[in-house]
Amino acid sequence: MKNTYKTLIYALTFFSAIVIGISSAFAQKTVITGTVRDAVTKETLPYVSIFFNDTRLGTQSDLDGNFKISTNEDYNKLKFNYVGYEVLYKSIIVGQTQKLEILLKSNAQSLNEVTIIAGKKVRYSNKNNPAVELIRQVIENKDKNQPKAYETVQYKEYEKMLFSMSNLSEKFKNKRLFRNYQFLFQEQDSTKIGGKNLLPIYIQEKLADQYLSFSPDKSKTVVLAEKQVEFDNRFIDNQGMKAYFDRMYQNINIYDNNISVMSNEFLSPIANSAPTFYKFFITDTLKNITPNVVELSFTPRNKGDMLFEGKIYITMDGNYAVQKAAFGVNKNINLNFVRGMEIALDFEKNTDGRYYLSKSNLIADFGISKNKGLGFTGERSVSYDQYKTNVEIPDTVFSGKKLEVLEGANKRTNDFWAQNRLDSIPQQQLKIYSNIDTLQKLPSFRRTVKLVTFVFAGYWDFGPYEVGPTNTFYSFNNVEGFRLRLGGRSTPALSKRFYFENYAAYGFKDEKWKFFLSGTYSLNNKSIYKFPQNYIRASFQRDTKIPGQELQFVQEDNFLLSFKRGVNDMLLYNDFYRLDYVKEFENRFSYNVGFKKWSQTPAGGLFYNDASSNSFINRLTTTELSVGFRYAKNEKFYQGKIYRIPIIDRYPIYNLKYTAGIKGFFGGEYNYHNIMASVDKRFYLSQLGFSDVRVEGSYIAGKVPFPLLSVHRANQTYAYQLNSYNLMNFLEFVSDRYAAINIDHNFNGFFLNKIPLLSKLKLREIVSFKAIYGGLRDENNPEKNNDGIYKLPSYENGTQRTYSLNKEPYMEGSVGLGNIFKVLRVDLVKRFNYLDHPEVTQWGIRARVKLDF
């Protein structure tokens, strides 16, 4: 569910601004469409740069040479510019819609070595293919053409991120609902993708000094200036939104084997394995520049794979470096919501004759429909300047944090930005800062955002206090019956130091009240929901709990989880007294220290019976002290209204926790020690997709009854849970030591994309495997020892209900289809062993909602 919350909240961020008012065209608009072709061969030319007069207001032709561009200004010429062709100026009629056929003349000479033979179409092959031989030379020389070939590199970097609404109609603009928001329609631009009208709604800029050292590897980013559109933090987390955009739009290094775009990994056209997945063609040779450059076109062998198509320009000076690149994705690619994508990379010659990246630009058009309707266009451009190599960088530069933001970086004046931007910025884009500020002051807009936030995030904001989450207001189970709950939490509007959270719930079957109250004090004067956390919290909770059910991102009384299979009558009444301290560091290391007094009472079909006397035990009390450590390199978050959600990346996440139970301390009845460790890692396998792998283990030292053992995570709902065993029953297995592995692999449609007709459904194949091996020492096994421990639970008819894993590991696996209607994953799950246990099934179908690109 976490990805669902994340995506819906982002949709809220932009659609709130959209729904408030947007448009497409004005009277007297100049609209030009057309096709660009080679003057001799009449072949269409992709990625031709097209500008009004000599401005930077322009577009590019698409892969078929088509273009559309529009303006409200009095420009009377279009400039067409393409590598290897003469620049062409074409007169246009101001204020009219017109169509042009553009013919560009080549100014390049042909290679004598290239011979073109007409006749029967030849089957493509890598063997004896000069284009493939050339790309192999590029691959062989990759290392020396990257920054890591130098001892040190330093440069200045300017980054601009822009999000706009696209494909907006005049009818939409003139709706009565938007009469107060006409100021948003004053400035419009023409997009580089699809010729749709754009209205910017979000912009962020950053200027930084970058320092890299490769012997040893060290890096430092010094942010000199930064600014962004600021939305109301009560509804939208600006820093979390920025982190998510950064994850979607990462720096593009064409020399990497894989390029991360839209949270997906694309195989680079110059990856080591590129000749296996791409077709390459030499399409031009430029001999009128020094060094000579070869234009190399490439396209996927299979149009549905996560691959690019476009052109790269290779220097013929022995370095085989990339001088320029222009590429995008095929419209048939298995990528959700992306209507089009274009990437442009420009390189400049360094003082040593090699090339460095001087500018990169990524633009993508999004929409629910692939071809029509409202959409978004996101663009990230990065410019680089003052590039220096092998210049000694003092060690003091790398001291401290890897990312250093200078004091006052977010308060730079407009004059500072005008003088220090490394790239020009249109005036209509700058207006977005003031437009959003004006928009957020309008009561009607604030009411709209508040309502949409309540629907998607689940909280209704009352200023200093917010009520929610909505998905817990009503639920049911076999013990409590019909259950109502109401609660909420304070916001930074009440205090930036003190935070409170509470709820009350009532079960109509057991006729008991449950409640929760916590108070948190922020030690760093920041919101406790933001990174880095540093707080102390005291809490008390009296509520029910399913033994072993630990849900990371949803509450157990979530309405959707009320629907369960099989016998589901075991519950605990719990009293928790807790005191927790949490400290996070900028390097993503964190630790927590905790005190917990826990009193539990069995309910429903769960009973605690002494193994020696068979007497009923009504209450079990323990007192615990714990310390936990966590490290997640380069981790980024999206902070929603309910949870802070980590953005999954390639770096592993390490967890280590030690818990000590102390007998006689605040009523604790047992001494024990529990050490638990886990590692989570996503492995990207290029065209074969990615695997999410989790390895964990635990060891409990001491003699304890089964409620204090490791109760393995089971799932009796119909939802597929990633970190639970989906065909294991609640409290079916307990252990005092265990090791487990969980592998969830998504092929991203690698196989289904190659099947005709079926490929149009954009389905994605998923396989998973989970195994856990554990056991009980004799001192904790009631079959071998009955001194001071409890009998394992059984059904009313006396059949055993809870077991140990002494015989063999529990194993289950699944095969599934993801991306059904772009939102649904359905798995067929198979349980491989322990099939003789009562109330178990060998097969099951589970579903999971997931919105993603």
Automatic annotation (TrEMBL):
The keyword Signal applies. Coiled coil: none annotated. It comes from the Bacteria. InterPro entries: CarboxyPept-like_regulatory, DUF5686. SUPFAM superfamilies: Carboxypeptidase regulatory domain-like (SSF49464). Residues 1-27 form the signal peptide. Pfam families: CarbopepD_reg_2, DUF5686. Keywords: Signal. The keyword Signal applies. This is DUF5686 family protein.
